[in-house]
TrEMBL record:
The keyword Signal does not apply. Keywords: Aminoacyl-tRNA synthetase, ATP-binding, Coiled coil, Cytoplasm, Ligase, Metal-binding, Nucleotide-binding, Protein biosynthesis, RNA-binding, tRNA-binding, Zinc. It is found in: Cytoplasm. Catalyzes the attachment of alanine to tRNA(Ala) in a two-step reaction: alanine is first activated by ATP to form Ala-AMP and then transferred to the acceptor end of tRNA(Ala). Also edits incorrectly charged Ser-tRNA(Ala) and Gly-tRNA(Ala) via its editing domain. Consists of three domains; the N-terminal catalytic domain, the editing domain and the C-terminal C-Ala domain. The editing domain removes incorrectly charged amino acids, while the C-Ala domain, along with tRNA(Ala), serves as a bridge to cooperatively bring together the editing and aminoacylation centers thus stimulating deacylation of misacylated tRNAs. One of its GO terms (cellular component) is cytosol. This is Alanine--tRNA ligase. Residues 2-567 form the Alanyl-transfer RNA synthetases family profile domain. Its main location: cytoplasm. The gene is alaS. It catalyses: tRNA(Ala) + L-alanine + ATP = L-alanyl-tRNA(Ala) + AMP + diphosphate. Belongs to the class-II aminoacyl-tRNA synthetase family. One of its GO terms (molecular function) is aminoacyl-tRNA deacylase activity.
């Protein structure tokens, strides 16, 4: 079996043998490039070479580049844990030509590495290529020179802004070098859901994109004009983890050697049984890489810019740890395991190990202080929303059309709402043909809240049936958490927007993003008014020292309910 480290080495060796200079990975913090949040591709460090502003003593280079895609143009944060192939941090293997070779050699080099006997020796019939819709030159190279069957060459246009969908026009950002590309996909087998690129099922994980060969031809300027580069060049990117999965005969990136080690460490530190079916384990294993590498490259958690992205990733990891039952700082304890897996290839991890651990520990300890109360508020908001949803679904008592339901074991009943003394109840009555023989009255709140000890088996069964009915209706018309609450979680408990979105997504509900933005804007306006004498205002979340004193819990609940009744 080829390990991830061996694969990294083999790639560099292959291109070195073909006249490429091995160049070290650049920092994750782009040097001198305000258009870029983090290094997101191997070509970033060569941007000025492509543009003709910078000259190197070589015209061919090869790299293993650290990349982070957790913000900006390429953002995969939301995909992590949900697809088999996306990470926030990953290594992109690349070969580059600066005005030297172009399409023909780029395609032949990639093919030679993938299928060459002494290289990866992959079966040709498992591979597929895409080309830019109008790129006949690349199409013909695949067809006539490589011998790819025509039904394995797919022409794909320019899917601007597509999140998953193939897009064969690559660009590093809104401005900068760009050009048509040709991508190589690997078939992981028909037992996995998914279709070839361009098909309706392309979002699946069957056909996985492993390598992108970009034919750098233009520089997009701020007005959107495409200016030709001084010389046509080549930039390629092969995902190391994805290719390692192929070479190790596994489907998901998380099954490769490197991730197996990390996943075991996460299981150990969270006190969870090791399993490939627990998304939180994968999310944490992913996040320890991006967080550690970012800190090693000098990023510190903060309230804005790069530091805020780092903070968001750390908090997300901590929340997933909490979900697994780990209430103490644990994330930082994974650093030595990461150093063991990757410290040889990236010595900066070893050198900065202590600093990385201290930074992570400080950050997770601080967040731990507000996480629990924030989660409680989140739970209350949810219960409040469910309460109102259920109420809206129930016909009033005495209605000619009562709601007819049945429990899991077939007990039939009707449900209706009753309002007595300002308290909402649900009236459960037996249906004529049913076995239930008594009318029961629940406090509506008890249906959405946790079960109470005094509830008997029948009451629990009825409660479960009502919950299932509610759940089915939530799935049909999504619940949306109002921006006001998302903002409260952010402002008072330090829950970044995407963290709340991550929790909501697990429950199949949405957030009111616009409402949240309105609250943010209002807060900025308040801060501007209060600090107009200061040149630079610091507006975002200020850490654990802001304690929420606005409402008592009951008032919060009442507010939530009032809010829903109003809408
Ligand atoms: P996808 O369509 O799967 O999101 P992409 O088209 O966005 O990938 P490129 O920008 O073409 O990716 O990057 C080149 C290569 O880097 C990809 O072919 C893939 O092998 C790898 N890669 C891209 N994004 C990720 C990621 N988030 N995690 C791991 N590998 C990645
Ligand atoms: Mg992508
Ligand atoms: Mg793609
Ligand atoms: Mg791509």
């Amino acid at each position: 079996m080829m390990t991830t480290s061996e694969l990294r080495q083999k790639f560099l060796e292959y291109f070195q043998q073909h006249g490429h200079q091995i160049v070290r990975s650049s920092s994750l913090v782009p040097h001198d490039d305000p258009t870029l949040l983090f290094t997101n591709a191997g070509m970033n460090q060569f941007k000025d070479v492509f543009l003709g502003f910078d000259k190197r003593p070589y015209s061919r280079a090869t790299t293993a580049q650290k990349c982070v895609r957790a913000g900006g143009k390429h953002n995969d944060l939301e995909n992590v844990g949900y697809t088999a192939r996306h990470h926030t941090f990953f290594e992109m293997m690349g070969n580059f030509s600066f005005g030297d070779y172009f399409k023909r050699d780029a395609i032949h080099f990639a093919w030679g590495f993938l299928t060459g006997k002494e290289w990866l020796n992959l079966p040709k019939e498992k591979l597929l290529a895409t080309v830019y819709a109008e790129d006949d030159e690349a199409y013909n190279i695949w067809l006539n020179e490589i011998g790819m069957p025509a039904d394995r060459i797919v022409r794909i246009g320019d899917n601007k802004g597509a999140k998953y969908a193939s897009d064969n026009f690559w660009q590093m950002g809104d401005t900068g070098p760009c050009g048509p590309c040709s991508e190589i996909f690997y078939d992981h087998g028909e037992e996995i859901w998914g279709g070839i690129p361009g098909s309706p099922e392309e979002d699946g994980d069957r056909w996985i994109e492993i390598w992108n060969c970009v034919f750098m031809q233009y520089n997009r300027d701020e007005q959107g004009n495409m200016n030709p580069l001084p010389k046509p060049s080549v930039d390629t990117g092969m995902g190391l983890e994805r290719m390692a999965a192929v070479m190790q005969g596994v489907h998901s990136n998380y099954e490769i050697d490197l991730f197996q080690g990390l996943l075991k460490a996460v299981a150990r530190e969270t006190g969870t049984e090791f399993s490939m079916d627990v998304p939180s384990l994968k999310v944490i294993a992913d996040h320890i890489r991006s967080c550690s590498f970012l800190i090693a490259d000098g990023v510190m958690p903060s309230n804005e810019g790069r530091g805020y992205v780092l903070r968001r990733i750390i908090r997300r990891a901590v929340r997933h740890g909490y979900k697994l039952g780990q209430k103490n700082a644990f994330f930082y304890k994974l650093v030595p395991d990461l150093v063991k897996e990757m410290g040889d290839a990236y010595p900066e991890l070893k050198e900065k190990q202590t600093q990385i651990m201290e930074t992570l520990r400080g950050e997770e300890t601080r967040f731990g202080q507000t996480l629990e109360t924030g989660l409680e508020l989140f739970g209350k908001v949810l219960d409040g929303m469910k309460f109102l949803k259920l109420e809206s679904l129930l016909p009033a008592e005495g209605s000619a059309e009562p709601l007819r339901l049945q429990t899991a074991d077939g007990l039939k009943f009707t449900a209706a709402s009753r309002n007595s003394g300002g308290v909402k109840h649900v009236v459960i009555a037996p249906q004529a043909e049913g076995r239930l023989n008594e009318t029961v009255v629940f406090d509506l709140q008890d249906v959405v809240a946790d079960a109470k000890p005094e509830m008997d088996a029948e009451a629990l069964a009825v409660k479960a049936a009502l919950e299932a009915y509610l759940q089915a209706n939530i799935a049909n018309s999504k619940l949306i958490i109002p921006g006001e609450h998302v903002f409260k979680l952010y402002d008072t408990y330090g829950f970044p927007y995407d963290l709340t979105a991550d929790m909501a997504r697990e429950l199949g509900i949405d957030l009111d993003e616009e409402g949240f933005e309105r609250e943010m804007e209002a807060q900025r306006a308040r801060a501007r008014a209060a600090q107009s004498f200061k040149a630079d205002t610091q507006l975002a979340y200020e850490g654990q020292d802001t304690e929420f004193k606005g409402y008592t819990e009951r008032q919060t609940e009442a507010k939530i309910i009032a809010l829903y009744q109003g809408s």
